[in-house]
Amino acid sequence: MPTAATHLPTCPRLTRDEIAVKVRTILADHLGGDPNDMPDSLNIIEDLDADSLDTTQLTLTYEDEFGIHGISAGDASKLTTVGAVVEYLERRLLTRERRPPTG
């Protein structure tokens, strides 16, 4: 019988560039635009006209796509640029990898 752990989403180790490509694709899918024309400095709210509902949906998508959960409202409010999102996700993924397995 499978355990609950076998159903948890996992994300293989990604490079910063792979995270960036995935983030840009998510942004393009949700807000439009060309993912290849989204520099790290692009402001998601000002440049892509994201509103609070958009940013909430993006946060949930990051959690699902990268297999991380619990992005706090405080952290989410700081994810205003493409670069900030990429750095945050990279840090969260590295932290998760360094934790010892439980159970």
Give an account of the 3D structure.
This protein is an all-alpha fold and 103 residues long. It has a domain at 36-95: Non-ribosomal Peptide Synthetase Peptidyl Carrier Protein, Chain A (Orthogonal Bundle). It has 4 helices and no strands. The protein has helices at residues 16-31, 52-66, 73-77, 82-98. Helix 1 packs across helix 2 (52-66). The longest helix is centred in the last third of the chain and has 17 residues, at 82-98.
Element string (H = helix, E = strand) = HHHH
Question: For this structure, what is the CATH homologous superfamily of the domain at 36-95?
Answer: ACP-like
Low-confidence spans: pLDDT under 50, at least 5 residues?
Answer: 1-9
CATH 2nd-level architecture of the domain at 36-95: Orthogonal Bundle
Terminal Cα separation, in Å? 17 Å
Beta-strand residue fraction: under 5%
Q: What's the gyration radius in Å?
A: 14 Å
CATH third-level topology of the domain at 36-95:
Non-ribosomal Peptide Synthetase Peptidyl Carrier Protein, Chain A
- The count of DSSP E runs of length 2 or more, i.e. the number of strands, is 0
CATH C-level name of the domain at 36-95: Mainly Alpha
Instruction: Report on the biggest sheet.
Output: none
* Shape estimate: globular
- Summed over residues and divided by their number, the pLDDT gives a mean of 87
Pairing-aware structural class of the strands and helices?
Answer: mainly alpha
Compute the number of helices: 4
Helix content: 40-55%
